[in-house]
Amino acid sequence: MPGPLDHLTVIELADQMPVAIAAMLLADHGADVLKVEPKGGAFFAHDLSRKAWDRSKRSVELDVREAGGLQALRGLLQGADIFIHALEEKDAAALGLDSESLGRDFPELVVCALTAYGSDTPFADRPHGESLAAALLGTMIDRSSSFRPGPVYLGHPALHYGQAFLGVIGALSAIRARRHIGKGQQVEASLLDAMLAQSPMNNWWQEEGISYIKAGDSGAVDRFGKTRLVTGMFECADGLYLQMHTGGQGGFKAAMDVLGFGDRIQTVTAPEMSVPLTDEEYHIARVEIFDAFKTRPRAEWIAMFQAADVAALPVLEPAEVLLDEQVEFVGQRISMPDKDFGTIYQAAPAVRMANAPAAAPRPAPEVGADNEALADLIARRTVLAADGKPLDRPLEGIKVVDFSSFFAVGYGGRLLSDLGADVIKVETPGGDQMRPLPDCFDAAQRGKRDIVLNLKHPEALEAALKLVATADVVTHNLRPGKADKLGIGYEALSKLNPRLLYVYLPGYGSRGPKSLLKSFAPLVSGWTGLLYEGGGEGNPPTRAVFGNEDYNNGFLGAAGILMGLEHRAVTGRGDYMEIPQLHSSLWTTSEHFLDADKKVVYGFRLDKEQAGFNALDRIYRTADGWLCISCRSDERFAALAKAVGHEDWLSDPRFATPRDRSANDAALLNALKPFFADKSSADGHALLEAAGAPSEIARETSWVREALWQDWATASNRVIENLDSMYGHVRQFGSFMHFSRTPGLAKGSAPRLGEHTRQILGEIGYSDAEIDALIDSGKAMQAADVKGRIQSRVSAA
Predict the structure, then answer these.
(1) Which end of the chain has the least Cβ crowding within 10 Å, N or C?
(2) Strand ranges (DSSP E) for 694-779?
(3) φ, ψ at 44 (rounded to 5°)
(4) Of 94, 207, 732, 687, which Cα lies nearest the Cα of 440?
(5) DSSP 8-state code for residue 9
(6) H or E segment at 549?
């Protein structure tokens, strides 16, 4: 199958959903993925989500807990490049599939372990499950419900997608390292890591408590306090919903003009978000604005905002966006034959490469479709020609030059920086417009170097081109056409550096009817269905969900760059790559699709109570709180049945298989609700624990900021501390992927504006006198101070 990864063989041991999702991303872009399933398939094998998550794969049934099945799996691993599984270390060791055993028996194999909490955390012995992790770690309380108090089941499987992204980024980084050191290694990324990886924008600790967003419910109306920023969901006169975002210089004033408040809003010439709202402006932006939106229908508002260059998009149901003219224009809606619906419409593979286009995906296989061909599937890996170069970190030696602004692209670069890449941020003298938001900026830019060049001057552009000539990757998210006007378009840079990966990460794509529109999180998330996912069946969309397109585009950008580097390692050629926020947002709702009549089909759907998808994977109200269970598999269901005094369920044909249990979900729900309702959460949890039925008491307070002070988090580099950042003393989140041979190392805070200008110019051949001339003339800028506090203290508090 064509694509940048068409030379890689991946074995997926399919017993958890994130494993399937990670393997889908690899299969979408050319990897040969063989799905090893238990007899009859895993508990989720017959869900509608299989139609996307298992497309383009092959399937064999093996019971790896039997000697014959385990031997067959080991035969497959002999020729594989990547092995993805979700086994905890003790379970893996019992099968001889632990890191040490696999490293001994298959020294070139990259093992991607997608565990629950990681082997080096206090939760290492807790059972696997997205809902369980969300309950235990307080993620269910991160975005409160618009409809009821208490924790909310994650309507959007953000932890699953986040873990899958981390697994792919880690696996491809290890593949890159293997080309040098000649050895594979284990990469671990847990559900806990996925939660932390989608938290840094809103969660840090700073000695004075400064933050652009208020602590607590980050979906709250007043979450930005007096920061000159409005973003959120608004109901319009026709009962439909839109989201609007005032990011970009002049965006706040332009939005207020459209809404009719212009005469009461001051014009700000400084970066808007660096100037707090006055009391009157605060009342307009946080109170009066809601009634203003109810004076016009949605389509009218969106047209007016977009004409004023203010970001605004409709809030739609999942997959509904596949009918949008931009999606159709860029070819991101594909059709596929389907045994149940005749034809279905899905999102296309998310990463676009000019010289390595992905083929159209194939329909997902039936469970065991390739059983008869098992002997033929045992491939032999191509002889690895490693150069023997030692590496301390997996991406050591890679240089990324980033011309982007705002969060998403920068966050992808930050992930690469933590893995050893030298990421250089190029800014204008005015700086990134996100600099006034300290925690948000630091989350995206930590660990990088920074140079300021005014590209409008030929001499500064010449310096930028010299820098690009030394780079492996260039990234940016400039509006279509602007890079060419500045002299840093693909044609110019690829001639200068033919091995360059030129990675463009706009909102919607380089061409098409929406290509020139502004794109900010969480607008694209709402447009692609996340707010309806979180709202629950029959409810209006919720204000916010956990996870958004800024994180997802950062994840996909990092993964796409690694795909490009791997393809370049094979071909020796650079490439033009396009990874818009639209593509990453479509991919992270890929469990939903359109049927033959182009009507929305949910792969799974949160119920009206916002309590779960399924009676066996759900939170239940108890006498004093909420208890989460995750018991869909046969083994877990049997334990649950015994715990609740219904061993008769084990011989009931209605509940014989996961598919049967899903078909009779209402009967199980009606039996389980009263069982938990008259018990305390602790008593219910104890009963289930004793029987071996996985459960967790759902926290009703946030945990994520507590993690910033945990010794184990610091020891594992998940949390780092900086006593002398430009913001003073801070604690923030660090590494999210953990390598057995070439560990990443998160360190440092965000760079000051122009902090490394002199250093970088010297590295590309400028003399001290030439550097002085560039700085003295304003064509470049060096930070006056590289230690101590900066003046900006923007805070929502």
Answers:
(1) C
(2) 695-697, 719-725, 728-733, 738-739
(3) -105, 10
(4) 732
(5) E
(6) helix 549-571
Task: Name the packing angle between helices 634-643 and 681-691 (round to 10°).
Answer: 120
The whole-chain average pLDDT of the chain stands at: 93
Residue 627, classed as helix, strand or coil, is: strand
Rounded CA gap, 179 and 385, in Å? 7
Amino acid at 504: Y
DSSP one-letter code for 284: I
Count of positions (residues) in the chain: 797
Q: Are 481 and 504 in contact (CB under 8 A)?
A: no
Angstrom distance (rounded) from CA 631 to CA 690 = 14
Question: Which of 28-32, 387-391, 511-515, 790-794 is predicted least confidently?
Answer: 790-794
725 φ/ψ sector (left φ>0, alpha ψ -120 to 50, else beta): beta
Give me the half-sphere count of Cα atoms (radius 13 Å) on the Cβ side of residue 240. 16
- The torsion region of residue 200 among left (phi > 0), alpha (psi -120 to 50) and beta comes to alpha
Q: Which residues pair with 449 in a beta bridge?
A: 424
- Token pair 């990897």 in the structure block, residue: 31
Spatial strand order of the sheet with 695-697 comes to 612-614, 617-621, 626-630, 695-697
Q: How far apart are the first and last CA of the chain?
A: 53
pTM: 0.95
Amino acid 220: pLDDT: 63
DSSP 543: S
Closest by CA to 364, choosing from 9, 4, 14, is: 14
Q: In this prediction, what percent of the chain has a pLDDT beyond 70?
A: 97
Query: Dihedral through CA 773, CA 779, CA 785, CA 788, nearest 10?
Result: -170
**Residues 523-531, mean pLDDT to the nearest whole number:** 94
**What is the DSSP code string of 578-613?**
E--HHHHHHHTTTT-EE-TT--EE-SS---TTSSEE
Residues 403-427, mean pLDDT to the nearest whole number: 96
What are 467-493's pLDDT values in tens digits? 999 999 999 999 999 999 999 999 999
Q: How many helices (H) and strands (E) does the chain have?
A: 31, 29
- State the SS3 of 427-486: ECCCCCCCCCCHHHHHHHHCCCEEEEECCCCHHHHHHHHHHHHCCCEEEECCCCCHHHHH
Cβ atoms of 309 and 244 within 8 Å: the answer is: no
Burial of 331 (0-12, 13-18, 19+ CB in 10 A): exposed
